[in-house]
Input
Amino acid sequence: MRLFTMLPRAALVAAALSLPAAAQEGDPRPGYGEIFAPDRLATALANVGIAAIRTQMELEYEYLSTDVLRGTLSLSGVTARPRLPYDRAGQCEITVERAVLSSDLSEPFAVSSEVALTLIGANAAIACLPPEASLGLRTAGFNAITLDRLTLTADYVYGTGATLFDLSAALNGVAILDVSAAGTFLPRPGEFGQSGDPAFRVTRAVASLRDTGGWAALSQLLPENLRAPETIRALGNEQLTQALSEGGTRNLSAIERNFIDALMTQVEAYVRDPGEITIEADLPPGGIVLEPDTYAKPHGLISALALDARMTPLSRSRLIDTGLLSQIDGGDLTIAERLDLARALMSGDGVPLATALVPELLAPVLGSDDDRAAEAAGLVANALARTDPETAYGHALRATAAEVPGAISMLDALEARLTTPTVIAAQNVNLTGSPADALGTGTDPRDLRALALAHFTGLGAPRAYARAYYYALLAEAAGDIGATALHEEIEARFGARGPAVAAFWSDLSAETQRAALADWIALDLASRYRAP
Output
């Protein structure tokens, strides 16, 4: 024993560490990867949030699941009992079979940010409504409010700053409500430079109500002499006119009177034969801007948005004729019809979305000499962008040469998904003639720089980095003081992309430099551009 007490402490520790591994073995323990797994952390955070909500109401659930990669949080068997000032007996109870909160975390910050809430099988006791509302519904025979499905979606688009909003609610035995709106927030400075009330650019505004038995139940609350369609129309016309004229203190515009007449016509038809009522803004393609003094009052909105009341949304009137659709495969369609069908297939407007059919549909247009072939190439490039970026890039090059709107941004997006050798090969296929053919007989070296810039960006000439470099070298040699910066910008395009691209650019730049020098000598460009 004395021997062990005399051993230094460091020697004892070293001896313990040198024991066979079997002495330290036991049941496996979870590693850090399991403890800090994304789904486990998301579940923990969700439960913390639920605990915070429980400070305001009773909340129970049977099952919770998270999926970080898909950006979803799902709760099943939810029961909530909110505290309401008018519910002294505590009878308000809300149950939801399944609640899903989802986002676009799988593709973060790519094009837009989206958040969606979906409730399936929701049921709320009638006591959850204020007494004046619950009394009327009880009289109509409703003891609970049941939603088959409620979906609320908000989407922010990075490129335009637009916010998209969609709401869909199916209320059992009452109605189905659909609301869709899109707009952009526009800041407006105040009188002294401070931030004032914002303006909004509205590009879509539509609300549609479909009856599923609600009017038959709620009409029982009205006296029999007030249920006649003509009576309801007259009363509604009078009340709306009174409200929009602010008690008769202002005259209604023709737009407002037309809206009231159209709305009450639809209400009368709805009462006579319950179906659907839609209120929709008739907007130009770019939308309209609502200034603060416009949206402050209802009559301003009606006039500015050109609101129209109709039975169904305008999109229902734009459905493409089946006879035309049946000719997609091998039909005798004109170029205009093919382009119109392709746009519809790309957007799903009036026809089921079918992007995969666009290349074949537009193949006859691409092979023609028609001026619209470049537009068709842009549509095909957009259709193939996700599935075949290499082929799409070739079509996008053709579209940019004809300055088709949106083709430049398509090229930039596709290049991010392709290797540099693939990009250069596609650009070379799209070129015709030698670079010396475009030199002309001018004596201003800035013309050479303009050619280099056109080929570098794709604006005014097919995008071709090697040819842009060729013209930049000639412009710089001819004494254009602005060509050096462009020359360096072209070279920077190939930097910091790894050794393979560096080696590829080294060979390509050397080849281009030799060609530029050879043409400089053969065409005696020094004599042409030398100043007197």
